Every structure is written in structure tokens, then in C-alpha cells.
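User: quick one, sequence for these C-alpha cells?
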């Protein structure tokens, strides 16, 4: 029979580890592992070296831990951060802020999921110095300053006092350079990068917020680690945006052709 401890505090129902296992549906050794990892407290009462009693409310906490492990594939350290202090089985009230920090840790997976990231896997050392960019990409020092001001360019390192561009920064510079080399510089002037940046940043924020809220809401996820979910979501999200943009551009072109011409100013 469960033991009861009398004190000035609210009465706590105490159970043995075998009862805790039965109530939670989780084996005793697993529960002890949770204790060693700091997700569960030490026994509430110990009557002998081999006999200990635990707060029965921990059964619900054990269930939640197991569920987060099996269905969300979250590591125990992360689960410990998500839960209110024991014996509570509730998710922390400040989970929203915590989830934001956790998403920041997924940056490597997101980078690997991008089309450009996959392209660069075998070319991780690709880089160009500032002097090389200015000499060979038809990009001026004023252009670089504008890109830095927009937050689109951040030198990754410095070599002999010269900035070095890598990764997405270098991708952006090479696209601008190729646009000009192909004679399309006037079609895509630097001035459009401000509105482009605002629009794409708004889309990026929407995507991240949507991912975060779906995870918090308990969306059904594939049986893979969360970083792999982030990698796949990034890859598929890029394809979705490209497909939608291509369709909408064609629709807008068709709509423009059907609009009546504007009357000349009187």
C-alpha cells in the first residue's frame, strides 16, 4: 500500500518505484535513468537502504518525459529545460522564449538543407577576398558598403588585413556580379535590394515563427531528430517558394497584359 507522509505541507501520496512504473507505464530502470539525468528528484522518503518512496505525482511527469522522447525525439537535457520543476508535468510557461533559443541551435541543419548549402558541401573552402571581389566581380566598394548596411554582407574572416567572403555572402556577391556581366545590371539595380531584403526577411521570419508554433502545438512530425526535420523543412520550403514565385510571376504578367492602358496625363 502507498505510504503517506504527514507534515504541515499538503499531504503527498508516496509510492514505491514499482508503483511509479505501473502508474506511468515506464519501466523502473528507465525511471531511475531519468533520476540520474536530473529530470526526477531523489526519493521523497527513504525507510531503509533498499526501500524508498516517491511522490505519486511524478508518474504524470514520467509519462510526459517518455512522450517527448519517443514522439518529439528530444534529448533528455532539452526535456529537463522544457518542464516545470518536479513534480510538475507541465511545460514551462516561458517555453516560447526557450523555443526561440532552441531554434537558433538548428542553424547548422538549416544551412545544410538549403540548396546552396548542399551545393557547397564538397567546396567548403570556397572563398574570395575583398580585393578579388572588387577586381573581378564588377562590384564597387560603395556596393559592398550598401550590402553591409542592409545586413546582407558580413566578412567571415580577414586575411592580411583584407576581408574574406564565404558561404551565402559569396553567393550573393557572385549573383550580383553575374547579373552585371550579362548586361542586366540596370534591370536589377542595387536600389531594389532594400525592398527585396524587407520582403524576404519578412518571409523568413514568418517561416521560422510558423515552424516554432507548429512544434509547440504538437504538430505530427516524422520519426527523425528535430535537426533533420529542420533540414528537410528548409529544403522543401525553398522548392515551395521557387515554385510559387514562378507561378505567380506568370499570373502577374498575364494580368498586366489584360489591364487597360493608363490614360495620359492631361
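Assistant:
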Amino acid at each position: 500500500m502507498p505510504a503517506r507522509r504527514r507534515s504541515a505541507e499538503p499531504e503527498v501520496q508516496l509510492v514505491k518505484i514499482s508503483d511509479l512504473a505501473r502508474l506511468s507505464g515506464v519501466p523502473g530502470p528507465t525511471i531511475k535513468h531519468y533520476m540520474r539525468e536530473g529530470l526526477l528528484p531523489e526519493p521523497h522518503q527513504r525507510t531503509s537502504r533498499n526501500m524508498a518512496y516517491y511522490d505519486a505525482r511524478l508518474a504524470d511527469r514520467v509519462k510526459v518525459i517518455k512522450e517527448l522522447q519517443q514522439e518529439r525525439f528530444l534529448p533528455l537535457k532539452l526535456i529537463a529545460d522544457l518542464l516545470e520543476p518536479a513534480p510538475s508535468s507541465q511545460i514551462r510557461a516561458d517555453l516560447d522564449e526557450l523555443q526561440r533559443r532552441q531554434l537558433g541551435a538548428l542553424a547548422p541543419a538549416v544551412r545544410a538543407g538549403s540548396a546552396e548549402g548542399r551545393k557547397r558541401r564538397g567546396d567548403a573552402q570556397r572563398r574570395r577576398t575583398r580585393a578579388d571581389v572588387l577586381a573581378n566581380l564588377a562590384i564597387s566598394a560603395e556596393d559592398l558598403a550598401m550590402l553591409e548596411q542592409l545586413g546582407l554582407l558580413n566578412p567571415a574572416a580577414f586575411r592580411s588585413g583584407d576581408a574574406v567572403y564565404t558561404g551565402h555572402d559569396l553567393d550573393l556577391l557572385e549573383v550580383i556580379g553575374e547579373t552585371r556581366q550579362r548586361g542586366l545590371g540596370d534591370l536589377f539595380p542595387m536600389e531594389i535590394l532594400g525592398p527585396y531584403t524587407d520582403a524576404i526577411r519578412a518571409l523568413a521570419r514568418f517561416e521560422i515563427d510558423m515552424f516554432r508554433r507548429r512544434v509547440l502545438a504538437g504538430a505530427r512530425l516524422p520519426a527523425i531528430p528535430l535537426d533533420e526535420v529542420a533540414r528537410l523543412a528548409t529544403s522543401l520550403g525553398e522548392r515551395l517558394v521557387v515554385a510559387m514565385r514562378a507561378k505567380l510571376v506568370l499570373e502577374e504578367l498575364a494580368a498586366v497584359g489584360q489591364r487597360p492602358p493608363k490614360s495620359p496625363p492631361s
